[in-house]
Amino acid sequence: MSLLQELSQEFGQAVLSTHARLGEETVVLQRKRLLDLIRYLKNKRGFDFLMDLTVVDRLEEVPRFQVVYHLYARETNRRLRIKVQVAAKDAHLPTLTGEYRIADWLEREAWDMYGVVFDGHPDLRRILMYEGFEGYPLRKDYPKERRQPRVGPGSTEKTAFDKTPSIADVLVLDDPDTSQAAVSSGTGIKEEIMYLNLGPSHPAMHGVVRISVALKGETVIASDVEIGYMHRCFEKEAETHSYTGVIPYTDRLNYVSPLINNVGYAMAVEKLFEVETPERCQYVRVIMSEISRITDHLTCVGAFAMELGAFTIFLYLMKSREYLYDLIEDVTGARLTTSYTRIGGLKGDLSPDFKEKCREAFRKVREDIQECDNLLSRNRIFFDRMRGVGVITPEDAISCGFTGPCLRAAGVAYDVRKAEPYLVYDRFDFEVPLGTDGDCYDRYQVRMMEMEQSMRIVEQALRNLPGGPICLDDKRMTLPPKELVYTTIEALMNHFKLIMDGHGIRPPAGEAYMPVEGGNGELGFYVVSDGTGIPARVRVRAPCFALVAGLSHLIRGRMLADVVPIFGSINMIAGELDR
Amino acid sequence: MGIANSLGRDAITTRLDAAIGWARKYSLFQYPFATACCSMEYMAVACSHYDIDRFGAGLPRWSPRQADLLMVVGTISHKLAPVLCQVYEQMCDPKWVLSFGVCATSGGFYDNYGTVQGIDSIIPVDIYVAGCPPRPEAVLDGLIKLQKKIQGERQEY
Ligand code: SF4
Question: Which of A77, A444, A461, A519 could be disulfide-bonded to A257 (CB atoms 3.0-4.6 Å)?
């Protein structure tokens, strides 16, 4: 019996409908049984990951909102989508915070953006927007340009700014007594709770995250992580652009590995069309994604080594990154805002001498990585500050929704490239490095080893690179060659249809979730099409969101100085964190 | 010239403004207010390949009190704007602001409820560097233009 049948039987009337389109199983459920269903799936069917939770606003329809849950079961390697429909007047749902830790932040975001209330949520407040912001910006009836600035023209006073709650109000201490000054029995010294604010303008917070901590001595006893300082409204922008027009915005999600975002988004739309790109295109996509992954890891390792005082490493690895940027620029024309993919193909082919250049670049990158390894891996100071710091158990990591290097450092072998090989990843021989302790040092080691694996993949791909076209020959999405556009009427019309407002690329109505392995973990694009040339919804499952959501858990009980390596090792990238 | 002759070959004459301007333009301590993708290029400019140190602006200072060049690198959202204002106000005179990339300059292609449409709507800006992100060469060019501007300014001291 299939899972969908089983659920229909088990939950009877509460299951409104089920379907399996594009290889994705979906259950539409009545709200009252949501919690039961989730518990059933989690406890009996091994759905241990809550990958994503989001809302789709269907302004004209009744009920208006669709709350969409994406679950994943690691053991059986299955995905399931659950949808619950709620009306705008009665947008309430039970909270899942008791089942998955990551639900805490995901629900806060859904509330912040759509005004959907999660009953029983311990701390439902704004997350991406700020206190004092009125309305729910991702609702379809919220105009994209309606600004509510806190300072600057349009707001004469800083009132909204003053609404920011004080640290002491936000932080919940386990033991209320500790907030009173207590006299330590041993020394007789008065111990008080000290509140400290880190960021957002703090070098170790990368300028965009604020951590408020409560300290007892130097130990962090509670913390609150505030994000949203870089909310650039990707999802809202995507709802006002054509399918091709969204691609440049995807560059700027995880701008350290933009090519992976390009690929993920394009593949999600291709999934809606139910097409596959030509073989050569798939190879090139793999090659470029892996080069991007190396730049991502180089930046991450370089930056956190610098934050621990190893400035040399930063310089060496940035030097390495330049070699790779040169490669990327050669192919895409840009160093980091690449916009390289197109729906159904690529912007252009690899440059003619790519193989030689790549070999040379990798030789230099390998040298630098080796040097970095020599300098860091057994370096006493580095080792002591990383080993045993920021430990997370596999169970906690899963519950927190960790994926990517941070999850693998905890010893859980989940890599989208292996679990659900997309593109041509199943043709390459590569390993998935694993850690054992789930601490900062393991996260560092996993990243170092992954870079080598990525280079191996690129080398194999280059060796077997097939010839042929790089774009699908499909009038619905691929622009005809310019020579034809200028000489034949059919091509001209085709071009016109794809470019003009009100026409454009129009995937059939439906929805698709496409996960790829990003630099930080599972990067998922959930695209909903209503059959027009503009996406109805583009949702990004950003790996970093879960990682930063778990940060409070990681730093709890550690010394203040440990916050820096822990924060560095999870590799927060603001573009995809705040979107 | 009279006075220069009497001083001999070991001394030069100049205006105080010019001398101070010369000193100031080559000892810029920058505060990188780095938020978004542009900060990747900021890193590139700061490191060995492009090496901003060659132009006397090598040392990032993470305290506004110690910095005289505020580099606003990347998108500024309305949530972050008050922080930027505060950092600017905390810097001591003389101070300059470099707007790094189109997001800081005009909001770039983010025209929506979240982003500030140009930092010059909240703080004064001395030099704008175009590009999304600007290439490192463009940043260096912007810096040299700023140095020219500093040199030509009436110096407060
Ligand atoms: S100007 Fe472009 S690269 Fe720079 S922050 Fe804005 S979007 Fe990113």
Answer: A519
Q: Length of chain B in residues, anyone?
A: 157
A559 secondary structure, DSSP code: B
Domain carrying residue A567: 172-229+544-579
The answer for residues whose C-beta is within 8 angstroms of residue A123's C-beta and 6 or more apart is A104, A108, A172
Q: What is the extent of the structural domain holding B57?
A: 33-151
pLDDT mean across residues, chain A: 86
CA of A160 vs chain B CAs: smallest distance (Å)? 10
Instruction: For residue range A103-130, list pLDDT tens digits in order.
Output: 989 999 999 999 899 988 888 888 888 8
Closest CA relative to residue A341, chosen from A238, A424, A261: A261
Residue A371 lies in a domain: yes
Give the chain B residue nearest A159 (alpha carbons). B82
Q: Give the angle subtended at the CA of B11 by the CAs of B6 and B14, to the nearest 5°.
A: 100
pLDDT digits (tens, 9 = 90+) for B50-67: 888 888 888 888 888 989
Q: Please check whether residues A84 and A207 belong to one and the same domain.
A: no
| B28 within domain boundaries | no
Do both A224 and A245 map to the same domain? no
pLDDT at A86 over 80: yes
For residue A422 the two structure tokens come to 């997309």
Residue A480 sits in a domain whose CATH number is 1.10.645.10
What angle (nearest 5°) sits at the alpha carbon of residue A285, between those of residues A20 and A477? Answer: 60
Domain assignment present for A142: no
CA-nearest of B57, B59, B26, B22 to B155 is B22
- Count of Cβ atoms closer than 10 Å to residue B8 Cβ: 7
State in Å: Cα A129 to ligand 1 middle.
20
How far is Cα A35 from Cα B33, in angstroms, rounded to an integer? 44
* Whether the CB of B103 sits within 6 Å of ligand 1: yes
Mutation target to probe the B interface, by most B beta carbons within 10 A, among A145, A158, A197, A201 is: A201
Q: Give the pLDDT score at A156.
A: 45
**Interface pTM (ipTM) of the complex?**
0.86
Number of domains composing chain A: 3
Region of residue A299 (left: phi > 0; alpha: psi -120 to 50; beta: else): alpha
Query: Whole-angstrom Cα distance, residue A548 to residue A571?
Result: 9
Residue B107 CB–ligand 1 contact under 6 Å? no
Q: For the segment A262-276, what is each residue's pLDDT rounded down to a tens digit?
A: 999 999 999 998 888
Q: Where does the pLDDT of residue B10 fall: very low under 50, low under 70, confident under 90, or very high at 90 and above?
A: confident
Quick one: average pLDDT of B23-43?
Answer: 89
CB contact under 8 A, A335 and B111: no
User: Mean pLDDT, to the nearest integer, of A486-502?
Assistant: 85
B76 lines ligand 1 (CB under 6 A): no
Contact A144 B113 (CB under 8 A): yes
- A163 interfaces chain B, CB cutoff of 8 Å: no
